[in-house]
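User: Um, any thoughts?
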Amino acid sequence: MNIELYLTPLPFADANLAEKTVVVIDVLRFSTSACAALMAGAKGVIPTAESGEAAELRAKLGRNITVLAGERDGVRIDNFDLGNSPAEFTKETVGGKFVVMTTTNGTSMFKKTAKAWQVLAGGLVNASKIVEKITENGKDLVIACSGRQGNFSIEDTLCGGLIIERIFSNGAGGHNLNDAASMAWQLYQNNSGSLYETIEKGEHARFLISIGFKDDIGTATEVDSMPIRPVLIDGRLIIDEN
């Protein structure tokens, strides 16, 4: 298996994704919130790049079956129902509905995955479920870190390293890593016992703490606390039951 990891969105946009599994990672916070929404009974999470696109899609689908969620610079968008804190996605707010969502970093990544064999949303909260699918299908893997505002983020890279570590632990044959994947793996190995502490010191976490979302850091760093596998089907993230 070839494993490629992209530390930021820009090089990922030019990646060859044909016949590959793609895992989009946005630990803080889209991947975590998408898992929370699906676990709370949402019918699906629809990632959109822009707020206007999200509003238009909601109008097409119908307000009675949709929830509009999103943030810019960490704060809920005006006139949206929800922001991007996993705590907001409960049975009462999203149960039985589609969540149309746009975020600063994570949601636009899915627009770049059309040629992939399969696209999954991964985070620390569902890492083992993601690894199950990767080792089961044996396809070459691309790990796409959403980063923060186009730049490197330590939390997404650590998550990529954790996924690689668990692929190795499963003993599923030989693997070829690009340099970014090797770096992510080493970063995880060096910080595996202090994920929360390491991520809390990162730029993105410090920013979220400064605007009142410290609890989200703890939620997003609870490894395997949301054991589901969101897969992108027809533009919607749904729970993969296979």
